[in-house]
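Tip: read the tokens left to right.
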């Protein structure tokens, strides 16, 4: 089983058919296709299909059950989304990124993420079937998210966690490479006669501060160095004198 195939989105008593369709699209954006819907009355398939857009296959292949127990019985990890806590509810909840880490570490086990009704959320009894609660942080003035938006945020975090070994995160250049780049820039400016009024030491400090805050990647630093070398080459028809190392 592929890692993304074991992620199951469970919608409990969804009120709006269009929200179901939008949730399908949110899931497919992140590569998740396993959708279970717990409901007593059928949704409007046409309304749902309209917002599902090119994720109609997720909707068509969804599994309909009448009891949440049936949707999570085989899951190794069940997470219920909620913004409420109480005496009969979970006494703490985790943020989506923490859930994503748990999901990534679940091995081959199925991970079910449960979303409640748009108006009332999950009941105490429904949340009790979950191993943990997950809360999407939002402003206290308006903390309730649209169902499909909540699905998108959770799926995004899980996708990132599952893809960490394949995605290439940004990594800024280390201090030593930053010093080398500043030396190239200072040497190039010296070669074109820029320092007739301003000394290279002061300009080196200036560039090091700016580029240090910018957090350049390795490729960005290389390209910037190439630009300044070419500028100097157009004038001198030769190499550059890097001069003193920047402080």
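Filled-in amino acids:
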């Amino acid at each position: 089983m592929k890692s993304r195939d074991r992620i199951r989105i469970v919608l409990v008593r969804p009120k709006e058919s269009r929200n179901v369709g939008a949730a399908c699209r949110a899931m497919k954006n992140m590569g998740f296709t396993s959708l279970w819907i717990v409901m007593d009355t059928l949704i409007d398939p046409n309304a749902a299909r309209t917002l599902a857009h090119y994720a109609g296959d997720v909707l068509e292949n969804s599994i309909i059950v009448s009891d949440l127990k049936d949707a999570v019985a085989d899951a190794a990890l069940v997470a219920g989304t909620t913004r409420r806590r109480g005496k009969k509810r979970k006494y703490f909840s985790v943020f989506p990124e923490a859930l994503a880490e748990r999901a990534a570490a679940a091995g081959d086990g199925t991970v079910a993420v449960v979303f409640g009704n748009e108006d009332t959320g999950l009941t105490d009894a429904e949340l009790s079937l979950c191993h943990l609660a997950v809360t999407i942080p939002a402003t206290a003035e308006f903390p309730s998210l649209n169902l499909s938006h909540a699905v998108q945020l959770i799926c995004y975090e899980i996708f990132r966690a599952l893809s960490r070994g394949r995605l290439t995160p940004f990594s800024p250049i280390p201090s030593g490479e930053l010093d080398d780049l500043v030396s190239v820039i200072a040497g190039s400016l010296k070669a074109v006669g820029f320092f007739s009024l301003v000394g290279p030491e002061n300009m080196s400090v200036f560039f090091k501060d700016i580029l240090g805050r910018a957090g350049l990647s390795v490729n960005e630093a290389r390209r910037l160095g190439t630009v300044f070398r070419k500028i100097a080459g157009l004038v001198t028809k030769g190499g550059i004198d890097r001069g003193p190392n920047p402080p």
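The domain at 3-162 is CATH 3.40.1280.10 (Alpha/beta knot). The chain has ten helices and six strands.
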